[in-house]
């Protein structure tokens, strides 16, 4: 059986630096566990805009569709020109085109972080609709201005998307979480129809998992609870925008966005993507933290391991995770944003060394 094909997209800002570092980890895992990976690259972002007139050419989308997994570097989409001038958000395009409906975002306090409360939860975020203007309409954006002084936004919540994100959350809680506890976050006291529909579907799925504890919390209350008592929660399932905000909050409480892995997954495709942005202010200095993207690749390997029933991919994922934990525990390999004296490369090479030692 041939190994997985991965498409690697560098992106903007610090993207090329952390993608190069992450690729070194991928290649080390490939060698150590004989994964027979096939790695391909393509340009997106400003580089693609300069070369082709768009930040994500159709050929890249087709290459992503043909690949077994995608590794996406951060992009500077806020700085892109209007969509009519080629300034598409590559992340949003790939999530929509590949139907990556589940954004899985773990937040876990690393062992070396002593000044934070213990956090160990996962936000399961619906990824294809909601208030996001590039994902809520079949044709055209979900925002419009009927006159110069009014801007309107459309929020889309469907039964299908609500049901399948709930199924993702309960399956995750059942298979991988010791607590087996799911919390649906909503604002149905105000958004009665849209969040009401979301809760209807989550409750139907919850009824199929009577052994999993289930409750519901308003989004504003959840933000307060996460700050005060984050260790009470296990799996949080919610709509797109609420999940985006709460996952960043949870990751920051757990040690920072620079540590937070993220997987965008659907039925047939998955994409590893760091939670943080492109940080152009530190680009080219060699100090960007690749931990989030490396952690995301470990999640991608786990997803591929399940689909391919591959023990070696699962072993590679564990080796990346433990190697990253050991690298982060050493101030000499940690990047400056984490209080270390290392660099992008020292962190990556520490992970590579652990992977190599594990397999020897």
TrEMBL record:
SUPFAM superfamilies: Isocitrate/Isopropylmalate dehydrogenase-like. One of its GO terms (molecular function) is NAD binding. Keywords: Oxidoreductase, Plasmid. SMART domains: Iso_dh. InterPro entries: IsoCit/isopropylmalate_DH_CS, IsoPropMal-DH-like_dom. The keyword NAD does not apply. The keyword Metal-binding does not apply. GO terms for biological process: isocitrate metabolic process; tricarboxylic acid cycle. It comes from the Bacteria. Residues 5-351 form the Isopropylmalate dehydrogenase-like domain. Belongs to the isocitrate and isopropylmalate dehydrogenases family. This is 3-isopropylmalate dehydrogenase. It comes from Pacificitalea manganoxidans.
């Amino acid at each position: 059986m041939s190994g997985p094909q991965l498409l690697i997209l560098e992106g903007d800002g610090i993207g090329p630096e952390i993608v190069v570092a992450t690729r070194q980890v991928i290649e080390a895992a490939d060698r150590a566990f004989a994964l027979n990976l096939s790695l391909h690259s393509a340009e997106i972002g400003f580089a693609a805009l300069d070369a082709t007139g768009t930040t994500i050419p159709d050929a890249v989308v087709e290459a992503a569709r043909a690949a077994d997994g995608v590794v996406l570097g951060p992009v500077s989409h806020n700085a892109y020109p209007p969509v009519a001038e080629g300034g598409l958000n590559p992340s949003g395009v790939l999530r929509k085109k590949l139907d990556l409906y589940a954004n899985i975002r773990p937040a876990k306090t690393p062992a070396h972080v002593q000044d934070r409360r213990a956090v160990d939860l996962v936000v399961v975020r619906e990824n294809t609709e909601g208030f996001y203007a590039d994902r809520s309409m079949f044709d055209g954006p979900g925002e419009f201005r009927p006159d110069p002084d009014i801007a309107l936004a459309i929020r889309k919540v469907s039964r299908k998307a609500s049901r399948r994100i709930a199924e993702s959350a309960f399956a995750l809680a059942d298979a991988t979480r010791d607590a087996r506890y799911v919390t649906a976050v909503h604002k149905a006291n105000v958004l009665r129809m849209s969040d009401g529909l979301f809760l209807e579907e989550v409750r139907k799925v919850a009824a199929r998992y009577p052994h999993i504890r289930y409750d519901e919390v308003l989004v504003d209350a959840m933000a307060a609870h996460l700050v005060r008592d984050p260790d009470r929660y296990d799996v949080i399932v919610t709509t797109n925008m609420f999940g985006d905000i709460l996952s960043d909050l949870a990751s920051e409480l757990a040690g920072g966005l620079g540590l937070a892995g993220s997987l965008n997954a659907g039925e047939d495709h998955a994409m590893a993507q760091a939670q943080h942005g492109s940080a152009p202010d530190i680009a080219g200095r060699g100090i960007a933290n690749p931990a989030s993207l490396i952690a995301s690749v470990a999640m991608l390997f786990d997803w591929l391991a399940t689909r391919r029933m591959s023990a070696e991919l699962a072993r590679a994922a564990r080796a990346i995770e433990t190697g990253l934990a050991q690298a982060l525990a050493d101030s000499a390999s940690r990047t400056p944003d984490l209080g270390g004296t290392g660099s992008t490369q020292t962190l990556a090479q520490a992970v590579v060394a652990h992977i190599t030692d594990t397999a020897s």
